[in-house]
Amino acid sequence: MAAKLTLTTLAGFGLGAAGAAVSLAVTYVWLTAAGHSMPWSDAELWRTAAGGAVWNAAFAAIGVGIGALVRNLAVAVAGSLAWLTLVEGVVGQLVGRDVTRYLPFSAGTAVGRLPASIADGLPQWGAAALLAGYAVLFAAAAIRFTTRRDVA
């Protein structure tokens, strides 16, 4: 289980970095075609690109943890989507941003520096630490319960 978590997290980071590279390349072409230059020296550009890669790595680890804890694939996917829409979406509207910004997807948007999260979300480093905590929590639970389930 630890090897699966490690490899999936690394693959998530690699795919996130590849996605960021493609986004930067497309943006460069688009800006150049419009007669503008790409702000390569802008730190915000690189923070956003790195945040996207970290987001993918963390959610890859969380996904492996959920997948290991919930043995039925359909239930795991449906439960994750229900969490995203019902808890972080609908309930978040009722409770308010003060609580929902500490939930996994909201922390992920702050890590990725999505515009909606910049104004009242967590700082990028704090959101990354929180998201890493969620990843470690799901990974530890998956290792504990799958080891116990496999031995029994």
The chain-level mean pLDDT equals 88
Number of strands: 0
Radius of gyration: 18 Å
Helix-strand sequence:
HHHHHHH
Largest sheet: none
What is the number of helical segments per DSSP (H or I, 4+ residues)? 7
Q: Please state the structural category.
A: mainly alpha
N- to C-terminal distance: 16 Å
Shape: globular
Percentage of residues in helical conformation: over 70%
Low-confidence stretches at least 5 residues in length (pLDDT < 50)? none
Q: How much β-strand is present in the residues?
A: under 5%
Describe, in plain words, how this protein is organized in 3D.
The chain is an all-alpha fold and 152 residues long. It is built from seven helices and no strands. It has helices at 2-33, 43-69, 73-95, 97-100, 104-111, 115-120, 124-151. α2 runs antiparallel to α5. The longest helix has 32 residues, at 2-33. The protein is globular, with a radius of gyration of 18 Å. The two termini are 16 Å apart. 27% of the residues are buried. The model has no long low-confidence stretch (mean pLDDT 88).
Brief descriptors of the model:
84% helix; 7 helices; mainly alpha; single chain; 152 residues; globular
